[in-house]
Amino acid sequence: MLLTDPVKDFFHKIVHQRVLVMVALDVDALCACKILQSLFRCDNIQYTLVPVSKKSDLVREYEEHKEQNKHIILLNCGANIDLLNTLDPSEDVTFYVIDSHRPIDLVNFYCERQVYLILKHNQQEIDAIPDYDVIYREYDSDEEESEGDDDTEQVSKRRRFDEASLMRKKERREWEERRKEIIFDYEEFSYYGTCASLIVYDLAWRMSKDNNELLWWAIAGVTDQFQNKRIGRDRYVTGVLELQGHMSRLNHANEDEDNSKSIDCMRINFEHDLDLALYRHWSLFESLCHSISTVSAFKVWTNIGMKKLHQFLAEMGIPLTQCKQNYEFMDTKMRDNLQTLVEESALKFGLKNLKFQSFSAQYGFNHKICASDAVYSVNALLENIKLTDTNGMTDKSNFVDALEGLSRISAPKMKEGLELAKLQLQAIRNNVGTFIDVGQVLSYGPFLYTSIKEGSPDYKYFSHPTHLNLFSHYLLQSYVRSLGKSKREKAIHLPLVICAPCDIEEGISIIAGIPPLADDSRKNLFGNAFIHAAERTKSRTSHDYFDSSIITMKNEDRSKFIDALITIMT
Amino acid sequence: MNGALETMDPKQEYHRFKNWKHKGRDAETMRRQRNEMSVELRKQKRGDHLLKRRNVPIADDSLDESDSETKPMSLKLDDIVANAKSDDETVQLSAVQQARKLLSSDRNPPIDDLIRSGILPILVQCLQRDDHSSLQFEAAWALTNIASGTSQQTQAVVDAGAVPLFLKLLNSEHQNVCEQAVWALGNIIGDGPALRDYVISLGVVQPLLMFINPDIPISFLRNVTWVIVNLCRNKDPPPPAETIHALLPALCELIHHPDTNILVDTVWALSYLTDGGNELIQLVIDSGVVPFLVPLLTHSEVKVQTAAVRAVGNIVTGTDDQTQEVLNCDVLKHFPALLSHHKDKINKEAVWFLSNITAGNQSQVQAVIDAGLIPQIIMHLSKSDFQTQKEAAWAISNLTISGNKEQVAFVVEQGVIPPFCNLLMAKDNQVVQVVLDGISNILKLAGENEAVATMIEECGGLDKIEMLQNHENEEIYKLAYEIIDQFFSGDPDGELGPEEGVMGYQFDPSMALPTDGEFKF
């Protein structure tokens, strides 16, 4: 059920308890976790942290920890899974779910105890949930009898019902039909709600325990959702506005005290920044070559595209040597003017959305980082490919690294993550180029399809969900931009299905689907489509990720699965 | 020890395989599984719209209308019984009607309470009121619903002397009374073989069949067909031969009926008959219905298909000649569709059907091969739900017994060995045994040709067989030991043999061409 007063009904309930926190492996969940940890520290709450990347992890870790912990917090996992059914908890276990995955499972929403959802009140989301009466109703048990399944044998005795009961049965059948339809509609799309970190931040604020550090994590959470295309621009702007409000409130008081805030405190600035990946930690040139909007606009993988990019730089009036110079060592004058220069040049080249509202944090004189770069870094840490993966310990050590990277903006891990992120972006860019050159993106009718081959370079990056997802977005946008006008008009409305090797030894692929470029709502219909296609073809799939639009499956079943997907979606 | 390890007498082996083919195993065990499974399914369905009670507010049931105004049950029943005895016709009719209503609403009908209140003799008396058809109708309805309960409850209706009266009502000039009597008799016949034969002995069949005429309303005809199903149901003992003789022409007619419900029931009736032993199978074949039954395998309604697969599947559990009757109707052309049907159940029964064909003579085995069905069987063997895999294992194993060298070689060429060996890891002893039998037969037919032994070794089958030598089941470890002993061990050359085989296998280009003679043993 929904908690209306999370301070009283959630936080005060766990104050003297041992708490188990299960954290999904995404930046937003980690940010939420950091905020929670700092709240726990204030109140000396004992807690155990457990990273969970899939539903099966959730089940396993729950089994392992359920004896010691009766209060369980789920960060970015659990809302869209029937927890009572999946985990079968004893009556003294309570779950607090802070999760952005939608749609919310209806049992979670309507059960009266044990599962508590902490959401930010979003009327639209609540309105979408079917009414209780529509989906639940008590019936007498003996009413069940007459309905014959397809494969049951004929009944040997039959009672004759009167009109009234026949009517009731009919009414019930109709109700069930209606129910099925309503639930189908409700579950048709998966999407993301308010991010977890913002919800936990909200809780801190209600208890007057918020500060710049906690706010920074909330900012990173919102940025993560936007950067990984889980939410559209509109939703992002709404989030930014809210965060900006908190920022001015928190920093207003300090200004009054005669600017007394020490340089050793963290500062947060709101700014209209360039939406270019890692440019402060790279060179402007490299950043332009690896940011989604410029990659696709210039088609940087082609010679002509490269020429255009050079023209663009020339137009800006910054010498190429400066552009290729590390940002840190760029001429200060140019650096200070960079934003205006880029923007002016961008206007001439018809580049839109090159600037966006964002935040940056500063700590001391040396350490400044903008929110999106921090997100790149932490994501890179989370999906770091470590060569020595022993018994799936990589997830856990990546989790620890990523948390460490988030702990302070001056943390060395953050730097490490930035370097990793560059490698990953390079892998993305290189593959986008080859994929489009070789014509590896195919139109399958209702969707575009592409697959990463086992032998292709850097394929390992793409066996991880977040990276695969980011790559698909780069690819889709670049592909659509590379088409002629009439084709583009069509392709802009097509979703993309991508397939990559996941576990070569076991012969397992990972498959993800993303919504069309034109759809800013980011609603994803692949979760259900995948389930149907798998059922129809009896493919051996595993729908284990919290995001239902990403699945894994046996390689051999792939072609018939994709065939069925085409039929379903046509 | 030595004695125990002696190779089995071929005759004895043949006998065992005959046993597989015949009833004992299949129809019975499968049917039990089906019932369990459908109960399971049903449970799931229910759970779906009932949240766990402990966590959920229990909604007010707005449907509750009837109970609110009721008096305590027993009191009410006493009134009803008293009024039902009344001399006043209107009072009596309304009391019987009330009793009928209690029994025909959808929530727990108070059958036992009513029986205890002594209403049965009164209702049975009402059946005799030829002057008052509404009363007869209401009483018949009430009795129908009482008889729809447990065996005990059905028996109570019979004990009250209702059956002869119902039979008389079949001649009533009021159709609703006739129909209700048919329904009531259906419930009584459906109780089991004893009551079925009792009702038959009182002469139900002829008047029942009289109703099958063009003028009968469809709902009535559905009821009649359903009663015929019940007459055919239950095989311990099966219904009397003369009854079957009487029913079969009707079934031959009804199988052409356009109504799906009637068609489904007709086919089920045939499937019950064909489940009753080779004599009954012969009666069904002689009725000439088989050519009309076979096309229903690819009917558009899954319900019809399910029943049809069962019916033809039962027929091919019979003798080779009986099996041939079905094959003569070009039955195999329907199987590509059935083997790729979206319902697991249908896949399973289709493979079961084929397993009984491959248990037949060599020309029947050849028919399965010629119909191109082997790859699909192997597909089910390697990946399907376990029940279907199991049937596929039977199909292959049977083929290795009844097929000739070339036929078995063909199946090996099609890649049967790896998936077949995989099933050695199954938890189900019966399957393991069936697979071991099959492997042993294949190896025997292979004779000097070592390619098969190599394949078994390469796919890890040999390791599995070796492991099975430690199996707790005596039969299994004996079989496993036998195979190892005969085909994989002994002389030191034997050790080397398979390895040479590996080389040969990899470098011999003819291996890549399945049509080449490599597998000819």
From TrEMBL, chain A:
Against InterPro entries, the record matches this protein to: CDC45
Task: Name the GO terms of the biological process aspect.
Answer: DNA replication initiation; double-strand break repair via break-induced replication; mitotic DNA replication preinitiation complex assembly
Q: Does the keyword Nucleus apply?
A: yes
Protein name in the entry: Cdc45 protein
Q: Which gene encodes it?
A: Cdc45
Question: A Pfam family matched by this chain, by name?
Answer: CDC45
From the Swiss-Prot or TrEMBL record, state where the protein is found. Nucleus
Q: Main location per UniProt?
A: nucleus
TrEMBL record, chain B:
| Listed Pfam families | Arm (PF00514), Arm_3 (PF16186), IBB (PF01749)
The source's superkingdom equals: Eukaryota
Q: Name one GO molecular function term.
A: nuclear import signal receptor activity
UniProt ARM repeat ranges: 118-161, 161-188
Task: Tell me if Protein transport is a UniProt keyword of this record.
Answer: yes
Q: Name one GO biological process term.
A: protein import into nucleus
Q: Which UniProt keywords apply?
A: Protein transport, Repeat, Transport
Q: Where is this region: Disordered?
A: 24-48
InterPro entries linked to this entry: ARM-like, ARM-type_fold, Arm_3, Armadillo, Importin-a_IBB, Importin-a_IBB_sf, Importin_alpha
Q: Provide the coiled-coil residue spans.
A: none
Which residues are in the IBB domain? 1-63
A GO CC term assigned to this protein in UniProt = cytoplasm
UniProt family annotation: Belongs to the importin alpha family.
Name of the featured protein: Importin subunit alpha
Origin species: Phallusia mammillata
